[in-house]
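Intended use. Records such as the Subtilisin E entry shown here are meant for training and evaluating sequence-to-structure methods. They are not intended to support clinical decisions.
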Amino acid sequence: MRNLILITILSLLSSIFAAELGPKLQEALEGDAQSFDVVIELKEKLNGKKIRRAVRRALRGNNNIREEVINRLRKRSERAQRSLRALISKLTNNEARYLWAVNSISLELSRDAITELAAHPKVESIELNIVQQFLEPEEVNQVKFKRRSGKRELTVPGARRAGKNRRNKRNKRNRRNRRNRNNNNNENVSGLAVNEAVPGFDSFNTYGLEVTQSDDVNNILGITGKGVIVAVLDTGIQSNHSEFANPAKDKDGNNISRFVTGASFVPGEADPEQDGNNHGTHCAGTVAGATAGVAIDAQLMAVKVLGANGSGSGIGIIQGIQFAVANGADVISMSLGTNGDTPGVNGIEQAANNAVASGAVLVAAAGNSGPTERTVGNPGSSPIVISVGAHDSRGDLANFSSRGPNADNQDIPTLMAPGVGVRSAIANGGFAFFSGTSMATPHVAGIAALMLEVLKPALADGTFQLPEGETQTSFLKGIFTKPENVFGVAQRNATGAGAINAFTSVSELVTLLTPPEPEPEPEPEPQAADFTQEKLINDFIPVLQEVYGNNIRFFRFFLNAPVEINEEERTATMRLGVQRFVVVNGRFVRRQANLTLNFTLEHSNPEAPVEEAVFNWVLDDQGRQALENTRNL
């Protein structure tokens, strides 16, 4: 009986402590393989939001909290993983990847090791290291743009006005082509046949710069992303492309290296500044390219998390996020995502959320599985990041752009940006037109860099504090999504707030951070005693002494009428009689002049404090000249 009870208790404990084995791992375990690349997820979750709040309280609102948030995430993960790390070191000599952004461990394990670790009380689940894939963009043809009456209009080759029958046939063909492409779930040019794609406006066909008014931010406001680092998590960046030949600039406008040190988390592709796919280079060109870039003076961090074939492990992506955060990336641009969303917060989303909590601005693609609802991929499905859908050059939502809500019924995406027929750099040194939310995302990442050129210094020197509970991502999101900072239709789970406008967003931030003009000192006010005839005469006597000098004793002055004083205008009029007695032929002769003199009551010591203000009646120049003329009476 005792043995039965003991067995029952052990069975219960085993069921309590046994970790869940993911479906992909279970499937793999049914095969003949003896070792498996797995992710061990711990039960204890690292809540970057709570850590950030605690750090801000500890540092009394100091904005420079990134390093401390990262340190606390590291320490908590190390403490939570301590016993597991000790066990792993006994079970295998394989190198383990200890992750602090998600409190997970990834390494290759044998069957027996998986079984033993699954029984550890701190382990929640063990799953295969899942591959991440993005959808290939589609090249499109070039079109021209011209301006009329200050409005942007498109001229599409071959799309001039035609007869009604011809136009109806073309529209019917276009609808059929769109249906075919949508059924294949490829990225495409929504609403247009391929030969009518709309990739751009100006001679470089970089319509995205004009639609978002990023070019106006550069040219009118002089804001170009100086002093900001943008990490592009992708297939790498071909750094020797001519688009990246110009130096970047620091916050003071000095030339600095275009690229900061990056990293690769793709086995067999060690150089992050090589791109075997084009996707990463194209995205980076939109962020900071010389001709296609939104933030032309921003620095780039190449973080390779996807290989030349467009695939990469989920752990590699998390490592990429960690690297970007730990190495000072201000903006993290992620033109990648899972195929759809799952309830709750998975590893990539948790890493993204904790990156946001640390102070990075994270921008992620919504995905290219529209127009079906609930197709936004992860991490773009997170309400914490800035999730980006795609629109065309007219501001219309692209048909392929994924729709929300996410698996937790939260509204997604945040907004949309140019993502149809976007021209940018590719790895062979040339340029190409791609479509997809992958192309929309770096537009927003670049605009975030423009915003941070303004915001970073204000946060660093303490002249501006983020509102309580805000991150830099949520703060920028709040500005981006205001009705006055977007155009087009706002629609939940489709266009989000609408199409982003860089110029109005940056202008609002500049206004917000511009110190208000100091309140002027209150103007001193004259007292009742200043508006008396006696006061005016007392102020006038020194003028008489100055004009007549020692000869004043030969003159007599009198009022022909009471002084007229206008208190509202602070003016006065004096009718003055001036007499002089002279000897003519042995006789005294009286000579007289009658003058009308005008005075103004003026503040005589404006530099003095208000309480020490002194007002005097001042004779105008015309009156002084009239006095001087009487000296020869």
